[in-house]
Amino acid sequence: MIDDFVFVDELVPEIRWDAKYATADNFTGQPVDGYLVNRIVGTRALCAGLARARDHAAPLGFGLLLWDGYRPQRATEHFLRWSQQPEDGVMKQRHYPRIERSQMFELGYVAARSGHSRGSTVDLTLFSLATGKLAEMGGDHDLMDARSHHGARVAAEAQSNRRALRRIMGLSGFTPYETEWWHYTLTDEPHPDEYFDFEISERVISAEAAPER
User: Fold this and answer.
1) What angle (nearest 5°) sits at the alpha carbon of residue 24, between those of residues 98 and 133?
2) N or C: which end of the chain has fewer CB within 10 A?
3) Nearest Cα to 67, choosing from 163, 184, 168?
4) Nearest Cα to 141, choosing from 185, 181, 111?
């Protein structure tokens, strides 16, 4: 079954990516377990959907930039351990200014069994094909705040760009997650009941589904 997982950039030309959890530029302030390289992995079905999204975005002057795709289950367990540690304030103002880190799971910003671990969920944004600049969205990736919800009151340009992304992804076979404007899941995902736990490395190797708990 692992043969169904590939590096997205190999099947979807012209896509950009910045795998935040492979770096310290994320809400934990450190690289996350399971992300050994800055690459995005997903199912072949996810890649086909993203190719459709790329083609819908281009006539609007946009390209796609991915922040996350497949997420090893061990990464979610890393998030859980981190959420139980004392607050150090390093990433709070940027990523969770109005909640405590211990509330991330109960408020639905992080899930104990993430759809990302099934391989057909993606975090992404738009960028201008003309300038390469990221589209204004009224808040950054992993801003755990009401401003990130679909329907939040944000500036007109950001609202327009969020609507464009939602329309692009809807036309391409994806369903939005209502509290995160950047999070979309393939509606007809190939592994809806399986959570995988193989590491993301330069060579995607065989793995088994993470055991149910």
Assistant:
1) 80
2) C
3) 184
4) 181
94 neighbors 140 (Cβ within 8 angstroms): yes
* C-beta separation of 167 from 62 below 8 A: no
Q: Residue 190 is which amino acid?
A: P
Q: Mind listing the pLDDT tens digit for each residue in 17-45?
A: 999 999 999 999 999 999 999 999 999 99
Kindly list the distances between the CA atom of residue 15 and the CA atoms of 7, 53, 64, 125, in Å, as whole numbers in the listed order. 11, 10, 6, 11
Question: What domains appear along the chain, each with residue ranges and CATH number?
Answer: 2-186 (3.30.1380.10)
Amino acid at 140: D
pTM exceeds 0.85: yes
Active site residues: 180
Burial string for 67-101 (b: 16+ CB within 10 Å, else e) reads bbbbbbbbbbbbbeebbeeeeeeebbeebbeeeeb
Name the 3-class secondary structure at 55: helix
